Amino acid sequence: MEQKPQESNGFYKLSWLQRIGFGSGDLAQNLIFQTVATYLMLYLTTVLKINPAFVGGLILTVRLIDCFWSPVVGKFIDNRNPKLGKYRTYLLYGGIPLTIAACLLMLPQAAEWSMGAKMVYATLSYTVLSMIYSVVNIPYGSIMASMTRDNNEVLILTSTRMVCANIGQIVVQAGFPIGLALFLSQAINWDQAIFMAIGTIPAFIILPLLPILKKWLGKKGLYYTLLAIGFIGFAILFCIGKFGDVKSEALTLCVIKITDTVEIAITVIYIAKIMTGVGLLVGSLMWALVPEVITDSEYRTGNRPAATVNALAGVAFKAGFSIAGWITPLVMSWIGFNLSEEPSALPEDPSAWFSVIGVFAIVGFVLLTLCFLSCKENIATTPEKPVSFGDMFKEFKANKCLQLVLGVFVVVFLASFISAPVNAYYTELNSYSDTVQNAILWFTTIIPALLLIVVALLIKKYPLTDERLDEMNREIEARHKA
User: Fold this and answer.
1) Half-sphere exposure of 220 toward its Cβ, with a 13 Å CA cutoff?
2) What is the CA angle 186-190-192, rounded to 5?
């Protein structure tokens, strides 16, 4: 079939099957990653009863290892071209061990072991899972930059991908506590489940409207608007937690009846939590800037180091997560809230935890297979000269856009993950002492709000416009034709 002129120049138009198929890969990964980001710390401290200081150090250490491991993976992938696809191959080759490692992360037998054995087990299982996850996540992120140069298509791909990612997030954040209750035949804590997941709702409204919102507000204007809404949401949650009562009937605006026994109260708290989700959605939108950074690199150097740039983005993304995972249990213990000693916000039965993560892991592998079958790599090149670690450092040093994007990744995901595990305690805020309440409020409202301000300052410095990107892409294609 003859290609359209714009497609022959790399500006490929994609079908919805390709877009949704690509997005299914992010849904698959989030079933595992969101489980780790939101619940691993709680599992290690409340189920295995491991000291929070050790857990915080473990999360930080594993991510420091990943800072060295991810560039190795990116370099390896950029310098090779497997028969099944330069990037797609690793969805299968990495997906199988990733599924197994996820199941091994929460073995029910571990709860009966000695504390020393638990610590060794937690260290090995989490380290192995993290390393395998990079083998899947880095090439997956590179696929988007290999499918098309068209900025509108990249934006649609990003919004589709992030809708799928947020489906994974809402399934995990609400589904994990619901799954625990179901496996144990216990009553479901709907207030907790809704609060954990309701911040994901904006993704399903805003992401499909990204092209329109971007046209109205501009690229930076869109980011500023979302961040401002998120900041206000965190401020409302703080005020309610500090001066009000999170269980107060007076906060209820209306009640939606689902069944004769299940009702959902829509409260000011839920509305504020949705607003915080709007602000944190900027983290998802930053992935749309990664192909721009890759284009900037190709324009300057002639190479298109998609896996290398995605590896560095992954390091920054995980750095935010690791700092959050290190600080949260450590500082909360200093304040007086020891997660391993306070009453847990979730059931502690280890078999239930294993069952839920096992279901998520298996479903995730099926989705990775769908992603492999649906994606087509139209722009995937292997450099004539192999990429070295020196080249990666030079690219980071020379690419100012990359530096800014990585900075935003660190800060915005720090804001997301510093509050994620503690959110399970917010709806039970009044059950704890004043000291513990203050600790919960700091990590669920104050710190994330301050970090959103830092994100806005970084975005202000980002220089690439859509017009400049189109110009760069046309020049790149002209070089290839010459």
Assistant:
1) 11
2) 105
* Dihedral angle of Cα 143, 129, 169, 70, to the nearest 10 degrees: -40
Among candidates 179, 161, 98, which has minimal Cα distance to 364?
98
The per-residue DSSP string of 104-163 comes to HTT-GGGGGS-HHHHHHHHHHHHHHHHHHHHHHHHHHHHHHHHH---HHHHHHHHHHHHH
DSSP letter assigned to residue 445 = I
Q: Which of 382, 296, 288, 283 is nearest to 324 (CA)?
A: 283
Which two tokens mark 435?
């000291």
The residues with which 254 forms a beta bridge, in sequence order, are 266
**Model pTM score:** 0.73
State the pLDDT at residue 416: 85
428-461 per-position pLDDT tens digit: 788 778 888 888 898 889 999 999 999 999 999 8
Q: What is the pLDDT of residue 292?
A: 83
Which whole-number Å values give the CA distances from 440 to 56, 177, 415, in the listed order?
Answer: 17, 19, 14
Q: What is the DSSP letter of 259?
A: S
